[in-house]
Amino acid sequence: MTMPKRPIRFATLGGLFEQDDVDAVTKVLMAATEPSGDFFPLPEEADFQQAFARHEGASAAVMVNSCGTALDLCMMALNIGAGDEVIVPPLTFVCTATCAAARGAKVVFADVDPATLCLSPTAVREKITHRTKAIIPVHFAGLACDVREFERLSSQYGIPVIYDAAHAVGTRFEGQPIGGCGQASCYSFQSNKNFTTLGEGGAVTTNDKAFAEAVRQKKTFGFVYGPKLGVVTIGFNYRMTKPQLAVGLTQLAKIDRTIAWRLERFQRMQELLIDVEELILPASIAPGHGCHLYVVRLNTERVGFGREQLRETLKEQFGVQTTVHYPAVWSWEAFEAIDHDRSACPVAERACQEVISLPIFPKTPFEDLDYLRTALVESIHTLKRKGSQ
Ligand SMILES: Cc1ncc(COP(=O)(O)O)c(C=O)c1O
Fold first, then answer.
1. Which of 187, 271, 279, 298 is 20 to 30 A from residue 104's alpha carbon, by CA?
2. What mean pLDDT comes out for the span 288-308?
3. Which residue range is the domain that position 372 belongs to?
4. How many CA atoms lie within 13 A of 384 on its CB side?
5. Residue that finishes a domain, picked among 218, 253, 288
6. Stretch 250-258: mean pLDDT
């Protein structure tokens, strides 16, 4: 007998916005109805940058309009260009790699750690050459990567580390925020992240004042303000708008609560799935995990069917929408034309075929988690039965 369907969407925003967020945006818009009103980003930009840097343990934050542009700006600030190599994991969103390719550099993929699915420092060491000009590890799903080992590699070889922290607002490494690690960290405030600035947004955090200034100039046409406006470098317009900055402040004020809600749900899901031997669960869901994504892996070596069959059954039979973070970056068509090295990444190759992100958000009802367990277990049994017929 099949159970009644309880459709669960992969909801991106998940009810994260509340009255105080609406009020903050409304206040900015109302002020702009006055003849003297404007959308000049101060004081919100300065306040948000300061508060975000403090929360993430960095001395400076520069707000930009996405994590993609944050990564682009870091590549520019490091003068990455043709002839250089940049090491990235294959299991990530495409822009972790394309930020380097866009500057003419060669993208070098190194394998991920089998337990954490974050870029493996050991695998990175194998891929370092005299051309390596940056390493971009990702704090995958919100779990901090091995920051200490990357710092060691960085100082041993003199190679800057730029962390892709798109999933990592609120992530901690050994109890400490990660925003001050390496040369810089790039955060995302896009719709489905731990918090959002009206759908798009991002930040670069760093402890290096000169680097922060280089990024700030690049994001604003190369402007230097003073008695006389100067243009000191080729720059762009990657700014965040005033209403976004205002809502960033209200969202940030609630981020620890939001992550606590996520953590409760992720921990419950770990308990519910612990005995499902066809699945490989996240290595660690504990305080300090940013809990951006709850990613399980279908253990394809144990079962006679593939990840896509499981996702289809979950959708068709149970109304459960899942997603995939991520197909291997090199599998995207554009990479056929991009200079890259994808050798020796067996862990990522397998993981990219097995990962499934479950629809769990800060306000997901706990009954949904029970339903998710049942849906997963029954779908796996159905597919196993079909396979043995
Ligand atoms: C790992 C990773 N890096 C970068 C990005 C890009 O973020 P944004 O959409 O803010 O440019 C994403 C977005 O999903 C991501 O998951």
1. 187
2. 96
3. 255-388
4. 14
5. 253
6. 97
